[in-house]
């Protein structure tokens, strides 16, 4: 991995301890607080003894450090190239006011380096200033549980206004669109951000207890996975955002259960088909038949 929160957390924690020790002598409680706040729950079991027993010789018995310079972790060339590649993604502007450039570095990859199949071409316009403004306001409302007045345009071109409490945003890789799930006065709302024409904070008084959330229809699919060509690792990564269970049946054979929302069913089918004979869907029968139907259509097209 180029970046890994799991591994870098320890380096950052030790760097912070050294930085504090350069400023003033540390006692055991302060070291413990730094580890608990910046690392993981089990980190005290080995970080604290390694520091206090001077196994790493970073902190002396009196709480000082022999290190004189504040630790720094400059980016490697590979990290810079990866960052520059990410900055080419138009969705970055949804989160950052200003994107920065690394003029002396070539991007690790560009949008022209990969081709996505089974993806619609009418995705959201991530360059549109109104879209960016609406996205950021919705994101802030989710964090602060604030109600919004949202005006949307339906398929007949009519503008509809509603007061909602945003709950979370969801990105569809297949549609290349963001959806907003929100609580509404009469029922929950699922709104495509591309249809939002105006978004403002609601200034009146509301009773949040009377707002109803979206009732998402949950389904599950079970399939057998033949772990050839590192398929298990690739599948678990590919379906990382779904609730799932994995059971080993025998050597290189696993039973995978995925829980998903009905809205994601088509995308799930497409992803499964991309693994070819390494995946065999076994239930429910309705999902099995949908996979068969897609394969028949592909065969009829000479695919």
Largest sheet: 5 strands, antiparallel
The Rg value, from CA coordinates, equals: 25 Å
The parts where pLDDT drops under 50 for at least 5 residues are: none
Q: What order do the helices and strands follow?
A: HHHHHEEEEEEHEEHEH
Q: Could you say which structural class the secondary elements and strand pairing correspond to? A: alpha+beta
Give the helix tally: 8
Provide the helix percentage.
25-40%
Output the strand order for the largest sheet.
4-3-2-1-5
- Strand % is 15-25%
State the total count of DSSP E strands: 9
| Outline type | globular
Cα distance, first to last residue? 35 Å
Mean pLDDT: 86
Can you describe this structure?
The protein has 8 helices and 9 strands. The protein has a 5-stranded antiparallel beta sheet with strand order 4-3-2-1-5, covered by helices on one side. It has a 4-stranded antiparallel beta sheet with strand order 7-8-6-9, with helices on one face. Helix 1 runs antiparallel to helix 2. The two termini are 35 Å apart.
